[in-house]
Amino acid sequence: MRFSASVRSALFAGVAGVALPVSAFAQDAPASPPESGQENSEAPPPVSTGATIVVTATKREMTLQEAPVSVSVTSGETLERAEIRDLIDLQTVAPSLRVSQLQSSANTTFIIRGFGNGANNAGIEPSVGVFIDGVFRSRSAGQIADIANVSRVEVLRGPQSTLFGKNASAGVISVVTRAPQFDFGGSVSATYGNFDQIVLKGDITGPISDSIAFSLDGNLNKRDGYVDVVNLDEKINERDRYSVRGQLLFENGGPLRIRAIGDYSQIDELCCFAGNVVAGPTVPLLFAVGGEIDPENLFSDRTYLNTLPVNEIESYGGSLQADLELGALTLTSITAYRELRSLSRQDVDFSSADVVSEMRDQAYDTFTQELRIASDFDGPVNFLLGGFYFNEQVEQHSGLANGPDARPFFDLLAGGGTPGTLGFVENQLGFAQGSIFAEGPSTREYFTLDNEAYSVFGTVDFEPFDGLTLTAGFNYTKDKKDFTLEQDSFDPLANVNLVDVVIVGQIANALGVPPGSVDGATIAAFRQDNPAAFEAIAAGATDPATNPLLALQPLQFLPPFLNVPNAVEPGRTRDDDFSYTLRAAFDVTDRLNAYVTYATGFKASSVNLSRDSRPLPADYTPGPYGSTILAPSSPIRDAGLGVANLTTGTRFAGPEEAEVYEVGLKGDFPGLQFNMALFDQTLEGFQSNVFTGTGFALANAGEQSTRGFEFDSVIQPADPLVFTFALTYLDPKYDSFPNSTLGDLSGMRPAGIPEWTIATSATYTHEFGMSGNALIGRLDYYHESNTQITDGLTGFDSNETGIAMARLFRREVNQVNASLTLALDMGLEISGFVRNLTNDRYMTQIFDGVAQAGTVSGYPNQPRTYGGTVRFKF
């Protein structure tokens, strides 16, 4: 894509200014553009006052002013100045991006323009694609480690399937790191902060020969936890992670350039704290069995647990990128293989009572291959054509375990505070005494997913005259998933249906035979021979007044599981889609650019790899109270596959299909740059993933839309002073969502999406004469308007009550960050920083208490952190 020469030489657009430091305003544009997809081979410049920024948002080198897409850019220097260490903190400088971390270090969800999901369910691909040096990172656990030597982070908003081969229905986060340099150099830094935070970083780069350069970098991040586990005299929500990376670059001035990267990162942290928000009716029972919690005191940063939350993550792999110039054509190949291992253990009753704990052990092996060819003709037509292949194998071993306090707790729950009910039930049903909620494994799961996908994508740019570029892009994707789900439920009460057990007992009594001899054929014969008697037995079994066992049904929250594949459910999805982009970009004046875009996007089906995975309603219809005997005809029942207490839900959710209309305007005037985008974005079949207290309900919303606008600006009233201001307005709506876990949400505003988001900063650089020394002060502010946190809660008597309770909990964010840096000409920098200066506290998410109806738990944000950094660059 080409714009007029005057605009091509202009300064960057304001869309990136929100995230760019002062140095971005003075760096001259490189004399010649870097190689495709790579960084300029010269070392980063010292702090100064102005620049043309080159980005690869469209898979071509362009200035931000030229790029006709809604993209924000955060430079590596801004990450340093703002003490942003990983992608979780990136949202404070990129207002259309929201990042949330939930029950473990491995569960981080990225959301752009209100769309995003998937971190806490291994079968769901994220709607926001994350690429690091052109390599797709499919899972958040492989994305959140501290990233060293970052050149820039580009956040592309809206569907990007025609530029990135992998599914990216909501947007893309593209992290670009510095390539090895042929000039020797590097840096070392040490940070010390509150909570005894220690961060060590180092990198070195230089030539091995005239044509081969190398780089090595590593970092260590350790910090004590800020949440006291009172009864264990320990702290959680700590930091304990490190990473190392090595690179080789072959470049001899000829047509071939090769970059090889290998990396390893490890996280071993006690995370994450969930506190009590609503102390429901079961809390006194926890106290009765000797447990403790800090009720309804989320921001005390105090908790009681019987075991510490363990998170162990290993992420490693390598990539090879080769760029070959063939005249006006450039051929690029990116090959990558990665492995990710994630183990978590957690006390999920969040109390000092040893009731229930969870273990989750996940493994991901991923291979990707991208191949593309791009033209650089002098004529009016240029193109990019690519292919992408993705292959991933997922395994998950998981399960729940009962502790020694499980039986006393649930016995009190069953008896309304009086013990002895479970023993009576065991006697009546013939179970061994002490078997219900016995100490030991409660469930055991084994899930696998094999995902293979390929796509062909490309764009064509046509410039009929100078200043106008017409673009058409396409993506054809074919995706197949094969999955298996196996589960054992060991609790004897969960393995009987409380209607069926009465029916069997009554038929046995009528026939004068032991209940164990009453099988399906016996029931069918009795029903046919004695229809009136059977109907009377069935009526009594389904009436709580005559069947007191039905009161125990809430204790059957971990019923047996129908394994997949089976004779009815093949355990696979097959999807294909054609997406496209149409865009017109033109120069209104030398200083004003505009573009109009219509684009579609796609994300393939996702699989519910959780213990709440259930057959689709079309495959099974349960009887009253989950009865199998009284269940009407359905494929699963007729095949003889029904298991006790089987209900319906989803095994998988169908594809997401995105559509966006967008109009953008970019201006560049002396002392002022701005970027504005107005958009109307819709996702049909948005894959909603809702925690139910024991697993996840995965369902397609019929349609979810978001209208809004994004405005970013940079104001430079004087050379040393730079202000940035970014504003995002979002107006989301469930246009159609009749089958949600909470009932019909059609017409409602989705929770968790703030109406207004602001990110603004001021940076002042005081230079000490001509010495090259400077004092750099930075102050930034991030705001999210008051918004409801979640759509509803499932642990209440009705959907209406759960929705009403959820309306009580809202979040507003007002975070102030600051830093002051003394940068000396000889390469030494000394800085102090503070994040969340005002110690603004809020809930990031709330959820139903596990096996505790009426109890609500939540995750708080991080308190104020501060410290100092010494850095030396050479």
TrEMBL record:
<feature type="signal peptide">
    <location>
        <begin position="1"/>
        <end position="26"/>
    </location>
</feature>
<dbReference type="InterPro" id="IPR000531">
    <property type="entry name" value="Beta-barrel_TonB"/>
</dbReference>
<keyword id="KW-0813">Transport</keyword>
<keyword id="KW-0798">TonB box</keyword>
<dbReference type="InterPro" id="IPR036942">
    <property type="entry name" value="Beta-barrel_TonB_sf"/>
</dbReference>
<feature type="domain" description="TonB-dependent receptor-like beta-barrel">
    <location>
        <begin position="294"/>
        <end position="837"/>
    </location>
</feature>
<comment type="similarity">
    <text>Belongs to the TonB-dependent receptor family.</text>
</comment>
<keyword id="KW-0410">Iron transport</keyword>
<dbReference type="Pfam" id="PF00593">
    <property type="entry name" value="TonB_dep_Rec_b-barrel"/>
</dbReference>
<keyword id="KW-0406">Ion transport</keyword>
<protein>
    <submittedName>
        <fullName>TonB-dependent receptor</fullName>
    </submittedName>
</protein>
<keyword id="KW-1134">Transmembrane beta strand</keyword>
<keyword id="KW-0998">Cell outer membrane</keyword>
<keyword id="KW-0732">Signal</keyword>
<keyword id="KW-0408">Iron</keyword>
<keyword id="KW-0472">Membrane</keyword>
<keyword id="KW-0812">Transmembrane</keyword>
<feature type="domain" description="TonB-dependent receptor plug">
    <location>
        <begin position="64"/>
        <end position="172"/>
    </location>
</feature>
<dbReference type="InterPro" id="IPR012910">
    <property type="entry name" value="Plug_dom"/>
</dbReference>
<feature type="region of interest" description="Disordered">
    <location>
        <begin position="27"/>
        <end position="49"/>
    </location>
</feature>
<dbReference type="Pfam" id="PF07715">
    <property type="entry name" value="Plug"/>
</dbReference>
<keyword id="KW-0675">Receptor</keyword>
<dbReference type="InterPro" id="IPR039426">
    <property type="entry name" value="TonB-dep_rcpt-like"/>
</dbReference>
